[in-house]
Amino acid sequence: MPSYLHDVARRLIAFDTVSAASNAAAAAYLADELARHGFRVTCQEYESDGATKVNVVATAGPPVDGGLIVSGHIDVVPFAEQAGWTRDPLAFAVDDARAYGRGASDMKGFLAQCVAAAAAIDRARLARPLVFVFTADEEIGCGGARRLVPELAALLGDVPLPTAAWIGEPTGWRAYHTHKGVVAFTVTAHGIAGHSSLPERGQNAIAVMARAIAAIGAYQAELRAAAPRASAADFPECPYTPLNLGAVRGGSADNMIADRCTLTVSYRPLPDEDPLTVHREIARRLAAADLRDPGSPAVAARVDVGAAAVVAGMRSPRGTPLAAALAAALGARAAGGAGGAPFATDGGELARGGIASLVCGPGELEQAHQPDESIARVAFEGGVEVIRRVVDRLCALERGL
Ligand SMILES: [Zn+2]
């Protein structure tokens, strides 16, 4: 089995599936392998920024309630401009301790384990559906899952929507039942261009933005101070909705009045909150604030708050059968009960679709998105058996029946 696992990982890592590119070739390979192992495969195809993207859904077992989704994303983060690589990012390689390549931890290593487990599972013993869901565009805002989840019931055909989903993102086998969402948007200050010698003929968009940033900062402090007590259990290091100013751009020369300044803002809403509450409140506060340029105070300023891109947060019950099955399959490797994952995943979309989702995978978070990305061989090679045991416990007939 290790040789087939290595072969699948080698093939998957060799496909350049950076989110900006098409993942169609990698998806076709995954679909072919799963079909070869007896799974019924359907694909959802869509166009995004001129590239063809494909989500893959593969099903085995009878069309009854109580199925299990095992899920991962096909796309990877960029490597071409990333300093620090001493290896070919698209060439799978192993040494005594680790396996290397872009996506080894995040998360082609887990996809390879899924395919190898699909080959090893006795489909005739499945009493409930096993569904592999492999998505596009996770790394750029979970766009693949957002398109897939509303269509999932149709793509599954006569198989009822499963009740549980396991997302094998890199957690070092820690199990997370919740995570925050991510919301991002751009604020634009519109000024009036002019020469710096006559400030009152213009309006400096940078000065306007400075006031907007101060207003956002005051709100940020309120959010921090108003951390709900209940969220400390899942997010002890940051039990509130953190807000970040990502990039500010404006102006072109020291003697010119800047006519435009943009600011990107993102925040990570707690999973039980309406993700757009903070966005709406920032728009309300900026509309009410005095944002005039101090150098040209007679002119009213115009500030736009752009539309928000939303990655859903995830909240699933603790102590689900999936959590118990993972703990049993991992045994001594189980890394203890964790609360909130420190990143967002496709699980937010799946949870919004009514599927109790859990994030737990063999890769290491410290390796994700890094140069010379790698995964420990013991976690890589042991993961096939973990998947097989979880599936056996949740989907298979009782032994002896
Ligand atoms: Zn990932």
Task: Describe the overall structure.
The chain is α+β, with helices and mostly antiparallel strands and 401 residues long. It folds into 2 domains: 2-178 and 313-395, Aminopeptidase, CATH 3.40.630.10; 182-311, Alpha-Beta Plaits (2-Layer Sandwich), CATH 3.30.70. It is 30% helix and 22% strand. The chain is built from 9 helices and 19 strands. It has helices spanning 2-14, 24-36, 108-120, 143-156, 205-225, 277-288, 321-330, 347-352, 377-395; strands spanning 40-48, 51-60, 68-73, 93-94, 98-100, 130-135, 164-167, 178-179, 182-190, 194-195, 243-250, 256-257, 260-267, 302-305, 309-311, 314-315, 340-341, 356-359, 374-376. It has a 6-stranded mixed sheet with strand order 1-2-6-3-7-18, with helices on both faces. Strands 9, 11, 13, 14 and 15 form a 5-stranded antiparallel sheet that branches. The longest helix has 21 residues, at 205-225. The model has no long low-confidence stretch (mean pLDDT 95). Zinc ion (ZN) is lined by residues 73, 106-107, 138, 169.
Keywords summarizing the entry:
about 400 residues; alpha+beta; Aminopeptidase; Alpha-Beta Plaits; six-stranded mixed beta sheet; five-stranded antiparallel beta sheet; 9 helices; 19 strands; about 30% helix; elongated; binds zinc ion
Topology (elements, then pairings):
Elements: H1 2-14, H2 24-36, E1 40-48, E2 51-60, E3 68-73, E4 93-94, E5 98-100, H3 108-120, E6 130-135, H4 143-156, E7 164-167, E8 178-179, E9 182-190, E10 194-195, H5 205-225, E11 243-250, E12 256-257, E13 260-267, H6 277-288, E14 302-305, E15 309-311, E16 314-315, H7 321-330, E17 340-341, H8 347-352, E18 356-359, E19 374-376, H9 377-395
Parallel strand pairs: 3-6, 3-7, 7-18, 8-17
Antiparallel strand pairs: 1-2, 2-6, 4-5, 5-19, 8-16, 9-13, 9-14, 9-15, 10-12, 11-13
Helix pairs in contact: 1-3, 3-9, 7-9
The site of zinc ion has 5 residues, from loops.
